[in-house]
Amino acid sequence: MAHINESYFNLKGSYLFSEIARRVKAFGKAHPDAKLIRLGIGDVTKPLPPAVIEALHAAVDEMASAESFKGYGPETGYEFLAEKVAEHDYGSRGVKMAADEVFISDGAKSDTANFQELFAQDCTVALTDPVYPVYVDSNVMAGRSGEMNENGRYERFVYLPCTAENGFNPALPDRHVDLIYLCYPNNPTGAVLTRDELKKWVDYAREQKAVILYDAAYEAYIRDPEVPHSIFEIEGAREVAIEFRSFSKTAGFTGTRCAFTVVPKEAQAYGRNGEAHGLNALWFRRQSTKFNGVPYIIQKGAAAVYTEAGQAQVRGMIGDYMENARIIREGLESVGLNVFGGRNAPYIWVKTPEGIDSWGFFDKLLNEAHVVGTPGSGFGPSGEGYFRLTAFGRRDQTEEAVERIRTRLNL
Ligand code: MLT
């Protein structure tokens, strides 16, 4: 008899964004004339930069001739891209990174979900709350969560509440943990950490022999010079941190799929007898077994992001999205809502009005303004009473959404 991995029974009903899509579809069916504006899932709306398009076309043409055709590529990415990442994303910030510490992949979502496979089932996992649900669900599937209690928390996870009271900057765990998921700039709160704040985490992880899984998918949105773009800007982080980055939100690759995970040679975890094992070699082993690499064409497109033209175009795109963030932030503040984030991140985290919970505000926005957002409670119990909007919409739609919220919402 094929028994099921019963850990799957511990998952909540459905993945957050699938649930939102289901509700929005039902609303659309019932109100076919409603002109919905979607500021829910953080999906980009601007086309790929011209430099990327040009490189993609050229790479397609290479595939048409026997001399330049490419079959299987290296599972962990072509050197031409890994070297550019090491040089531009790290070297330019004074961080030394070798190309074989950069693993090119098809997304930060899959990498943040898969990396936990390298660790034992009895590892204790610490998660900020609210949090990107992928870190939670992938560890539930792997059997590290235990069951969910009546407060919506899994019994074996260590939750690190991020609320307005602590400035969305979580305290260190009050006990030993093995794996720590951090995401900065934060999805969903839009909060960031300074170097000193991040150093506390690195020091804690070194002391506890823990590993930090650091999701920096939104680093390109950082404006404040005091905010580190990479955890590897912090001394000692190479021993204890893995960093996930993506071209999705930086260069419009959500549908094109290209990302990378950085695993320094010094990063370690431990066997039952306390002996150290390098995570770089283990991740290489895992990827070369389970992954066949990102298509050559796509990697060529990603490499074009690092050309002078690509860099200028990407800066322009990000600047436009950040202008959306300003429009949303100021528009919502003007009707008396309490708004966070949106200054170093493309997410705006809104306190729901008194007496309305997260899903209540989702319904209100959908029904009264025909605007789709994301209920904060979908990101964890401490997200209750909050709501997330993204700055990734089209400008005209972002302005229209803010106008509808200002004029149609009975607050
Ligand atoms: C989000 O809306 O939180 C993100 O778009 C989800 C993702 O990147 O997978």
Q: What's the N-to-C terminus distance?
A: 56 Å
Approximate helicity band: 25-40%
- Strand order, largest beta sheet: 2-8-7-6-5-3-4
Q: Output the radius of gyration.
A: 21 Å
**Hetero ligands:** D-malate
Question: What letter string, H or E per element, gives the SSE order?
Answer: HEHHEHEHEEHEHEHEEEHHHEEHEEEH
Number of domains: 2
Which range does the strand content fall in? 5-15%
Account of the protein in words:
With 411 residues, this protein is of the alpha/beta class. The protein folds into 2 domains: 130 residues, Aspartate Aminotransferase, domain 1; 255 residues, Type I PLP-dependent aspartate aminotransferase-like (Major domain) (Aspartate Aminotransferase, domain 2, 3-Layer(aba) Sandwich). It is built from 13 helices and 15 strands. The strands form 4 sheets. A 7-stranded mixed beta sheet has the order 2-8-7-6-5-3-4, sandwiched between helices. Strands 11-12-15-14 form a 4-stranded antiparallel beta sheet, with helices on one face. A two-stranded parallel ribbon has the order 1-13. The longest helix has 27 residues. The N and C termini lie far apart (56 Å). D-malate binds next to loops.
Topology:
Blueprint: H1 16-30, E1 37-38, H2 50-62, H3 79-90, E2 102-105, H4 108-114, E3 125-129, H5 133-141, E4 158-161, E5 179-183, H6 195-208, E6 211-215, H7 237-240, E7 241-246, H8 248-251, E8 259-262, E9 268-270, E10 276-278, H9 279-290, H10 296-303, H11 308-334, E11 339-341, E12 347-351, H12 358-369, E13 371-372, E14 374-375, E15 386-390, H13 395-408
Parallel strand pairs: 1-13, 3-4, 3-5, 5-6, 6-7
Antiparallel strand pairs: 2-8, 7-8, 9-10, 11-12, 12-15, 14-15
Helix pairs in contact: 2-10, 3-10, 4-5, 11-13
Bound molecules: D-malate (MLT).
